Amino acid sequence: MKIILVLCVFLTAMPAFAGTFKDNFDDGDLDGWTTFGKDWKVENGKLTCSWSGINEGAILTIGNSSWIDYTFEYDGIVLEKLSDNYYLGHVMRYDKQSAFFLYTAFHAPPWNNPVIGFIVNDQNFFIQGRQFGPELNKWYHLKMVMQGKEAKFYIDDNLEVTYQHDLIPESGSVGILFGGCMAEFDNVIITGSNVPDGGSIGFAIASKRKLTTTWGEIRRGK
């Protein structure tokens, strides 16, 4: 009886809608992702894209307005420099129709630092981290954690920047952001409230029926 009671208390304390989405692109497609017109594609099990723009970065998103607090991480590499100040990063609580969204950017010189920024009606507010930038042909593990009105940006598991702002949107999709280079991405993991289990990597703890349902919800944007 004690064991059952403890188990019930533990399950009650767990988030009701927490889940994990994983994509290593080994399935060769971008099902569920929104590309916003850029030339995103999957080659040899890696997500790849080339974009020379800096002020307008290339964005690839997944999720919807029900996604609130989450951790979003991936591996990224810059293969070729196309502009000065190239960067790799994220968008968080993103809505293309909104004038508000949050982003991270790991900048090469001349900025040469990791940044968390906030776009409000075309105005850019940001906070910078220490002086270092992404090298060519080197893999980095980039992670952002979104909790309430606070965002944290990690590079190779080191916390680089923390940012808080009362105007940060309550919810929205997440995505990869980059500019000024040709880059590859792999091993996406998203965990958090209202994130359904799914992606190209299976989950041993989930039933086949549940995986089919939740992945279908992602593809329909529900």
Q: Poorly predicted ranges (pLDDT <50, ≥5 residues)?
A: 1-16, 203-222
H/E element sequence? HEEEEEEEEEEEEEEEH
Mind telling me which CATH architecture this is?
Sandwich
CATH class: Mainly Beta
**Gap between N and C termini:** 39 Å
CATH superfamily: Exo-inulinase, domain 1
Secondary-structure class? mainly beta
Q: Under CATH, the topology is which? A: Jelly Rolls
- In DSSP terms (H or I, runs of 4 or more residues), the helix count works out at 2
In percent, how helical is the residue content?
Answer: 10-25%
What do you see in this structure?
The chain is globular, with a radius of gyration of 18 Å. Strand 7 (100-107) and strand 8 form a beta hairpin. It has 222 residues and is mainly beta. The model is unreliable at 1-16 and 203-222 (pLDDT under 50). The chain has one domain (14-220): Jelly Rolls (Sandwich), CATH 2.60.120.560. It has two helices and 15 strands. The strands form two sheets. Strands 1, 2, 3, 5, 10, 11, 12, 14 and 15 form a nine-stranded mixed sheet that branches. Strands 4-13-6-7-8-9 form a six-stranded antiparallel sheet, with no helix packed on it. Helices cover 11% and strands 47% of the residues.
